[in-house]
Specification:
Length: 304
């Protein structure tokens, strides 16, 4: 086995010394003041070891990373019926692009772009008794960690500025692909995106996708077949119009968020999470992507 601690240390040194750290997202006003000098990386291996360096215990807004967790909860609740309302193809466009949704009659390309995630939010609103509380409980149950929480200021900040998400939800509604009121679904979606976690919490929550559906608490949540689908969607759609680049450079299923987090995994081997708030031109964490590319190159551990 490679010496993970030494490898993470060298990745960390490269990251903190990088001259270009990307640009922090400003379209959600509450996120724009985060210091882009933060950098954390955390690795959890399937044989029970854990390694972390830098700001790996600091919490940040997980944003779109939450879409994977909402998807897995929806799979647990309604299974295959999801695919009557959402496709499973990469979009090749930005996460909030709307043109394809109109052209394709209100069927989102996949559950990881915003329109697809809004349909998943609609499914959770329909099928959970207390949607926000129950979703939070799901994440807490995956890890036994009751400190995972919403950031209400971030949720409100996005509600006040989320015009494209309102447009997407209204478009879905016009195509009869949204069953609940737009405001109710988006309230859930904005809260889901506002959840805060550290890199180590993210690695723990995502453990089930590297462990055949069985979470860190040793409870089976989704089947092997469903895990295969979640990981396939992360690989092909997790980075929007940069999904090809992530597969090319890193070679792992993964998911990014505009808060600067990335989580990626190799089934049966490990989950790795990075946080660096500066984004590249495609809206994914600049140094996070570089760090993961170095990690899979140095360890030779990727799916390819
Ligand atoms: O809906 C939005 O625009 C944000 N709540 C999430 C976007 C996001 O994280 C895109 N991913 N990189």
């Amino acid at each position: 086995m490679p010496d993970f601690q030494v490898i993470l240390e060298s990745i960390y040194q490269d990251a903190i010394n990088a001259s270009d750290k990307g640009i922090v997202a400003s379209y959600i006003p509450e996120l724009e003041h985060i210091d882009k000098n933060n950098f954390g990386i955390h690795l959890r291996t399937s044989d029970g070891k854990s390694y972390g360096i830098g700001d790996y215990k600091k919490r940040f807004s997980i944003q779109s990373i939450s879409k994977v967790l909402a998807l897995s909860k929806a799979m647990e609740l309604i299974g295959e019926a999801i695919w009557e309302r959402i496709d499973v193809e990469p979009s090749g466009h930005k996460f909030n692009q709307l043109a394809l949704l109109e052209i394709e009659n209100g069927i989102p390309r996949n559950p990881l772009i915003n329109s697809g995630a809004i349909v998943i939010a609609d499914i959770l609103v329909s099928n959970l008794k207390n949607p926000k509380e129950d979703f939070l409980s799901y994440l807490r149950d995956l890890t036994g960690d009751n400190t995972i929480c919403f950031n209400k200021d971030v949720a409100l900040s996005e509600k006040l500025t989320g015009f494209k998400n309102y447009a997407a939800a209204n478009l879905l509604k016009s195509f009869k692909n949204l069953q609940n009121p737009v405001d109710e679904v988006l309230d859930f979606y904005f809260h889901q995106c506002s959840i805060e976690m550290s890199c180590s919490q993210l690695s723990n929550v995502f453990y089930l996708f590297a462990n055949n559906g069985r979470c860190l608490q040793d409870k089976l949540h989704i089947t092997d077949g469903q895990v295969k689908r979640v990981n396939a969607l992360m690989l092909t759609c997790g980075f929007y119009d940069e999904a090809g680049e992530f597969a090319f450079e890193v070679g792992l299923p993964g998911k990014s968020g505009v808060g600067g987090g990335i989580v990626a995994l190799l089934p049966d081997k490990f989950v790795i999470s990075t946080w660096s708030p500066g984004l590249n031109k495609k809206g994914n964490s600049k140094l996070g992507m570089l760090a993961l590319a170095k990690f899979t190159t140095k360890t030779k551990l990727s799916i390819f």
